[in-house]
């Protein structure tokens, strides 16, 4: 992570960063790495989607991340078609429908328009649950 932070500092850090595209924290101690990066990069907002919210050993690590003023931890639904999870101590959850024809059917508060573009709901609106198009 030190190498990543150094590269970001020299090249210019993005304002918004998604922590995992495909993957998750492997151990609760991974939270310390992301907290360190957030502290080192004061103009960057981090979004961390996770399915580890179902594992009790991650509870305090995820809550510590979400308590950081520039980190949003969103619990991801375990299966397509599940309602977005509500987990105490974390931001509102995320989901994807079984079928894209079901977008807007009440699985979440906000339906992602597809592709981030200028949208920053996942980083800036922790109170809104989000559903994504199924790829």
Describe the structure.
- By secondary structure, the chain is of the alpha/beta class.
- It has one domain (2-6, 15-131).
- Helix content is 25%, strand content 15%.
- It is built from four helices and six strands.
- It has helices at 2-11, 30-40, 59-67, 121-124, and strands at 16-18, 45-50, 71-75, 94-95, 110-111, 130-131.
- The chain has a three-stranded parallel β-sheet with strand order 1-2-3. Strands 4-6-5 form a three-stranded parallel β-sheet, with no helix packed on it.
- Helix 2 links the parallel strand 1 and strand 2 (45-50).
- Helix 2 (30-40) runs parallel beside helix 3 (59-67).
- It is globular.
- The mean pLDDT is 88.
């Amino acid at each position: 992570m030190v190498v990543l932070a150094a590269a970001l500092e020299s090249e210019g850090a993005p304002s918004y960063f998604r922590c995992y595209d495909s993957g998750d924290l492997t151990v609760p101690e991974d939270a310390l790495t992301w907290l360190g990066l957030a502290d080192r990069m004061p103009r960057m907002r981090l979004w961390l989607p996770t399915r580890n919210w179902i594992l009790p050993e991650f509870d305090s690590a995820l809550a510590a991340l979400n308590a950081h003023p520039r980190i949003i931890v969103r619990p991801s639904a375990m299966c397509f078609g599940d309602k977005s999870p509500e987990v105490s101590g974390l931001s509102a959850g995320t989901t994807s429908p079984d079928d894209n024809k079901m977008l807007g059917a009440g699985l979440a508060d906000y339906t992602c328009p597809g592709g981030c573009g200028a949208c920053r709901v996942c980083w800036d609106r922790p109170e809104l649950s989000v559903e994504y198009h199924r790829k």
